Amino acid sequence: MAEQLTGLADDRALLGRTSTAERVSDILRSRIAEGYFPPGTRLSEDSIGGALGVSRNTLRESFRLLTHERLLVHELNRGVFVRVLTVEDVEDIYRTRSLVECAVVRGLGEPPYAALEGLTEAVEDGRRSAREGDWKAVGTANIHFHRELVALAGSERTDELMRSVFAELRLAFHVVDDPRRLHEPYIARNAELLTALENGERETAERLLAVYLDNSLKRVVEVYLRRVGDDTP
Description:
By secondary structure, this protein is mostly helical. 68% of the residues lie in helices and 4% in strands.
């Protein structure tokens, strides 16, 4: 916990003079997504509040916001914990992803090449991280790819919805004991999907994406069950 709090203290400068529960929530959300606070971690009000230099009330409000986003859970007389997902949670996350991401691809016109720069960057980030053997970073690049895909819809509401969904997805990734096996296949599949979009092949892209998400769900559930089993709270 000491290492996590040291890193968290570095984020204190991000609060500036307009320290709000929303800004604190943004910091904690990012830290949870990055694995600084793994699923099941109890979040200490005193430690985190001290590291960020915020009041107990501000921190509690940020906890409330993140609980609403399903990233935290409050346990009576025990405190606030980073949520541990169930297999049903994982299946629901992928159901949402399929509904939203496939609809985005289906509704696209022919986006200008510049609109796909974010996807291209994510593909290259994934390849570079794989060469370096940083499979956690490969997972981050993969989520970046899909966040950029959703952004093609040009909808702030959809972006906000999926921001929470992708943050939840990272909670499942953090309990996987073999990130290479989980993430490596999707480096090439992201590139294949990008090529279809560059060529304006929406039907092909949607088909690739649907199969992609179905395969990803099965793989995540497989490794998740092996690690968490049926005793997930």
